[in-house]
Amino acid sequence: MKVIVPVKRVPDTAGEKKIDPNDKTVDRDAGEAVLCPVNEFAIEEAVRLKENAGAEVKVLLMGPDNAQSIVRKALSYGLDEGLQITDDAIAGSDAIGTARVIAKALENEEFDLVIFGNQSTDARTCLVPAAVAEILGLPSLTYARKLEVDGDKVVVHREHEEGWDVVESTLPAVVSVVEAINEPRYPSFKGIMAAKSKPLNQKSLSDIGGDAGEVGFDNANAVLIEFAPRPPKEAGTIVEDDGSGAAASQLADWMEQKKFI
Amino acid sequence: MTIPTSPFTDEHQQLRASVRRFVEGELAPHADEWEADGWFADWVFPRLGELGYLGLSMPTEYGGQGADYWATVVFGEEIVRCRSGSLPMAVAAHTDMALPPVLKFGTEEQKQAYLVPALRGERIACIGITEPEAGSNVAGVRTSARRDGRDWIINGSKVFITNGVRGSFVTMVVRTAPPSQTPDGRPDPWSGISLFLVDTDLPGFEVAQKLDKVGMRASDTALLHLTDVRVPAEALLGIEGQGFKQIMWELQGERLIASIQSVAAAQLTFERSLAYAQEREAFGRPIARFQVQKHRLVDMATEVEACRRLLYDCVDKWNRGEYATTEIAMCKLACAQMAFRVADEAMQLHGGYGYSREFPVERSWRDARLMRIGGGTDEVQREIISKLMGL
Prior knowledge:
The complex is a heterodimer of chains A (261) and B (391). Chain A has 261 residues and is an alpha/beta fold. Helices cover 25% and strands 26% of the residues of chain A. Chain A has six helices and 13 strands. A nine-stranded mixed sheet of chain A has the order 11-10-9-12-8-1-6-7-13, sandwiched between helices. In chain A, helix 2 crosses helix 5 and helix 3 packs across helix 4. Chain A starts with a strand and ends with a helix. Chain B is an alpha+beta fold. Chain B has three domains: 115 residues, Butyryl-Coa Dehydrogenase, subunit A, domain 1; 117 residues, Beta Barrel (Butyryl-CoA Dehydrogenase, subunit A, domain 2), CATH 2.40.110; 144 residues, Butyryl-CoA Dehydrogenase, subunit A, domain 3. Chain B contains 13 helices and twelve strands. The radius of gyration of chain B is 21 Å and the shape is globular.
């Protein structure tokens, strides 16, 4: 079985994110860049398929040249090889543009299963996995909290607000996973060292047959018109108890007013 | 020889990120509970084994990670962030004190029987040097082994043995012959000493007491009694009669890991003190704005940095296979004293809160005090250094 895990280089999730006022895209040099934490859950599922079913796993990244370290980081969890799509023409792509590039890259690859994280921690659109499946004409099984491969079919528990549905499809298929699916492992030192020498193939947009007229900043459907810094946190309400117990009802009134109760 | 400003590679830094996440996510939340129980959970050793952290610098053929000694430094620096000095010490007794002699002096059979399961965290190791009447004086050990056919019969006591209650074997210093004569006719107290690997479940092996300590409270420290403990010839580690030399080699690694943890603990204490000083207000401004506290913080940071440089120099030598006894003894002396001074200054800076059990400072202060005693006291380090200086 061949599995591909698309991953993303994102600004440090815990850090303050900045938007570049010139082109109104995320300033990717403002903070430390990391492997998107949601990808770790997809990687963990792939590593388990490798351990339990002998899957060969390739990591796919679309991003700038210096994102190589993120591919290596993904490989350090035990994945087999990397493919990086780097091209000036794809910079500034929106979710659909991103999905077009990833789908194009996948068209050139052999695979049975693509495992995405359900969202990235920077944009959080959750659109890319389903869009990739749509473009490729493959079954799309999103928000998986459980994933099983059984012969030539994949079965997932698809999470929603009221619980989950059990959904299955034939392979090849595109799956996106949520954080409840597993507990990602930590890369071992052996894994970290081995990642240095694993094959990493770098391709341009034309190498994968992509069309520069469909992707990148100039062809994005989503346009950021205006942005403002997050307003400072407002001071909270302090309820003080004068010893009479009146604070309890004040607190209850406040919670009711805010519709917490 | 100059070492680069940072001796750590990208791979070391990735390891650091992994270890920190593990320590903060899986260990630190339990620190208070383990401290109160006087025992850290039994799952810790197997979990560390599963993550490959018990054998970072050990060869892969025995289940280690095959990394250099700087990986051990990374792990030692990060594990102190578990908010307890006990657990890092207990792990170090296993990984950096009891096990290296098994790798260095052991037979293939001993490595398979002891090292391999120990790196998985399934067998927990102790180092048994100190005795009720012989601590730093290794030549004065009274625990003795006599031959009985192919076997050895061991009698004696060992005290202050880290992991002594939970341990499954002890890398033990034992006298196997009376001191021989040196060529000029004086007794040679360092002769007749040997190392043994002694299983703790043998008849006659008794954990006589779990010791109650000022600090390092989550770690089990034991008094062990051995009464006619029979071990096979295969329990001898290394060469009979060469135990003194072998344990002197072990002590280099022991002093290094103690120095690593001392510097790391002091660094953490400094970071906490800085954060507290910037937050805590007195007379209408954060106490970090008072010159007296600024200078205190600067002194703490300076001492930590100076010791770290000495430590990294020693680590670099050790990593390249140099046997730098004098420098390592100096390093242990300096780092242990510094760690306690920094903890003491941190307590002073925190005032009444520092003395209260509500803040982590008091634990760091109690834990740091051991560093001047364990792994050879300050006084012993000075004796070693003075001897090597020809005084």
